[in-house]
Design brief:
By secondary structure, this protein is an all-alpha fold. The protein has one domain. Helix content is 89%, strand content 0%. The chain is built from 4 helices and no strands. The longest helix has 35 residues.
Length: 112
């Protein structure tokens, strides 16, 4: 159990880092570049980005990472006899909360 738990934790941390980097690049570079375009060209470019981003790799990372985090929270909550496990639960919960909250607070209004 411990070996699988370690592997899932490493994969979720890596996936979280990749998704965070993607969202960082999108908000810092792509949105600024789209802002420099004329509105109709920016809208067309954003529509193309939305079409192209939906692919298996992105969906596995974007949806799979939170699911792995949830699995870690559930697994950790069932074996809370280790003092360090509560920190893992808090960190995973924070990652899930921040990712969803920041995306909806920053990206969704910017796309409208």
């Amino acid at each position: 159990m411990t070996e699988y738990f370690y592997i899932i934790t490493v994969i979720s941390i890596t996936g979280g880092g990749i998704v965070t980097g993607l969202l960082f690049a999108f908000s810092n570079f792509v949105m600024r570049a789209l802002d420099d375009l004329q509105p109709e060209h920016g809208m067309f470019a954003m529509q193309r980005i939305n079409e192209k981003i939906i692919n298996p790799i992105f969906l596995i990372l974007f949806l799979g990472t939170p699911l792995l985090c949830l699995a870690i929270v559930i697994a950790t909550a069932t074996i809370l006899n280790n003092p360090g496990n509560i920190l893992i639960v808090r960190r995973r919960d924070k990652l899930l909360d921040r990712t969803v909250r920041d995306h909806h607070a920053i990206q969704c209004p910017a796309k409208q």
